[in-house]
Amino acid sequence: MQMKEQVWNESFHPGIISSTKLYFQDLFVGAKRMSRKDFWWGFLGMTIVAGIIMGILGFVITKMPITDFYWSSIVGVALAIAFGYYIISVFTAIIRRLHDRKMHGWWVLLPIIPFLGDIALLVLLCLPQKDFGNSWPKNIGEFYNQVSHFRKMTK
């Protein structure tokens, strides 16, 4: 009988709510890993949240009078901030997902290659994790321990 390897997930029960919380929690963190389930559930949840917020702001900005430049510019800036927040969260999540595949985050630039780059990145994001010999930590605490240990060794 062959034993199946345990798949690591940062949230104990990956789902739309717990995985979306990881997107919000690790918005600016790229130096860790994200499992496949957490990535795709979080992507769905983050897309829904961002779509609702941007939809409401877009609806508000179209219903404002043309002469009201002040409030329409404030709503426009809020819309740009919401979109930027979404893009940054997905970008860093892709980097964490690539780290779970034992790859460098620079692979996130693969879509620079027209058409084929997008398909190749999508395939990489769908592949299972590589846990054996993966130097990327599973949580941020492990990363800081590794860095402090390395600094002590180099002194």
Describe this structure in words.
The chain crosses the membrane at residues 39-61, 73-94, 106-125. InterPro entries: DUF805. Keywords: Membrane, Transmembrane, Transmembrane helix. The chain has 155 residues and is mostly helical. The protein has one domain. The chain is 61% helix and 0% strand. It is built from five helices and no strands. It has helices at residues 16-25, 36-62, 69-100, 116-126, 140-154. The relative contact order is 0.15.
As residue ranges, the low-confidence spans are none
Largest sheet: none
Q: State the shape.
A: elongated
- Tally of individual domains: 1
Structural class based on helices, strands and sheet pairing:
mainly alpha
Radius of gyration: 19 Å
Strand content: under 5%
Mean pLDDT: 82
Distance between the first and last residues' Cα: 49 Å
Q: What is the β-strand count?
A: 0
Pattern of helices and strands: HHHHH
Number of helices: 5
Helicity, in percent?
55-70%
Write a compact overview of the structure shown:
With 155 residues, the protein is mainly α.
Q: Which characteristics define this entry?
A:
about 160 residues, mainly alpha, 5 helices, about 0% strand, elongated, membrane, transmembrane helix
Structural topology:
Elements: H1 16-25, H2 36-62, H3 69-100, H4 116-126, H5 140-154
Helix pairs in contact: 1-2, 2-3
